[in-house]
Amino acid sequence: MNNFLINAVVISGRITFCMPFWRAQWTPNQNFVAGLVFKLLEFGIACLFIGFHCEIYLWNSVEDLLGTRKLCDHITYILIISAYIISNFLIRLAGVLYTEELSSFVSSLAFLSTNVRIKTGTESVFIIIAFSFLPVLLVVAVQIISSDISHIITTNFTLNIFTADLAVYLNCLESIVSYSALMYAYLFVVVFGILILSIYEQCVDTFENHYLCSFTEVFPKPFEKFKEDVVGVKRLMDLYSQISGIYFLAVLYHSALNWFRFLNYLTNDSQVSFLVNSMVLNVFSVVAVGYMACFGNYLTKRFRDLREKLLAAKANVGLPESESVWFCKRSNYSFALAEKSRYEVSKLLTWIITWDWKLSVLDMTDLNHGTFPTVISAILPCMILIFQLRMSENDSK
């Protein structure tokens, strides 16, 4: 089951980025060339879409595009367009910045999750909801593409580099690329986050059942292997936090501006071109923000509960805090080795307890239940400003 989940995320990433994960059997030179080609490809895609929008806005005013002179509609249109451009840019930027790290990340995650089971029903529900987002986003993409095509065909663009037919294709491609990147971001954040939490939970259970007990002999060699696995889990957590922080910013930005799109539709008396009102998108945007807030809150709370469990177990067992105390008091060599093993466990346990794994938006704000009112408080002032501007423009007629 874990391999299926990992492969689903990897395939989604390959579709989105073309080739973000490399084969483990490739040589370093092959990986370097593949990484270079991938970065050039992403740079080319970015230049293509940026050039397309520059071509449109260089030769056409926003007033001509929308068929309205209202400044409030112009501002709303630019904000909505940025929801696609910025969110897509952030997700692809993460892929470029962590190209090499993604390969080792996926390999390590697949190795450490070999014998791991997702234990709680809540975690399974989060994963099921993440996969259910895929058809929803696909429906939204089709609705937006069909609406934009009709507006492009009926709007007289002035283009010098791109042809009118190519403009239609590029606009469709941009919507597909943007929403495929969002699909990948949701799967990456949720599936990999749940798997890492499950691996950490298994480490806690192993610690409690095998190493936090009465010691009568020196620990066997598997303890060294266990320490290596713990170090691997910490690396996974750190890299996941860095990458998912960028993804969180992208998906929250996209969802927040689509809330703005819906509120604009409710307060506007006429339909603005390129601002399609999709009820599927409106509902999804609200659900997505609440979903990510609940997911971040659950992951953080579950991690802290497991850490408290380790802390309580350490207090009950009474592991040594200093290695020298035991060797000063004990002359028996075998008993001294056993006490040294206890001290090694104590050091590792103390390090694990100091971990503070939480989900955040690039360390700007933590992802928890407070995210939902934060997004609302960010949208409302902007919406009030647009509403007042629209009222002023209507009164001036």
Structural class: mainly alpha
Shape: elongated
Distance between the termini: 63 Å
Number of helices: 12
N to C succession of SSEs: HHHHHHHHHHHH
Mean pLDDT: 79
Helicity, as a percent range: over 70%
β-strand number: 0
Radius of gyration: 26 Å
Main sheet: strands, sense, barrel: none
Number of structural units classed as domains: 1
β content, as a range? Answer: under 5%
Task: Point out poorly predicted stretches.
Answer: 214-218, 323-337
How does the SSE layout of this entry go?
Layout (H helix, E strand, L loop, with lengths): L1 H16 L10 H32 L2 H5 L4 H27 L1 H14 L8 H34 L9 H48 L10 H46 L11 H39 L5 H7 L3 H21 L17 H25 L2
Helix pairs in contact: 1-7, 4-7, 4-8, 4-12, 5-8, 6-7, 6-9, 7-8, 7-9, 8-9, 8-12, 9-11
Keywords: Membrane, Transmembrane, Transmembrane helix
Q: Notable features of this structure?
A:
397 residues, mainly alpha, 12 helices, 79% helix
Protein described:
The protein has one domain. The chain has helices at residues 2-17, 28-59, 62-66, 71-97, 99-112, 121-154, 164-211, 222-267, 279-317, 323-329, 333-353, 371-395. By secondary structure, it is mainly α. It is built from twelve helices and no strands.
Could you give a quick summary of the protein structure above?
Keywords: Membrane, Transmembrane, Transmembrane helix. By secondary structure, the chain is an all-alpha fold. The protein has twelve helices and no strands.
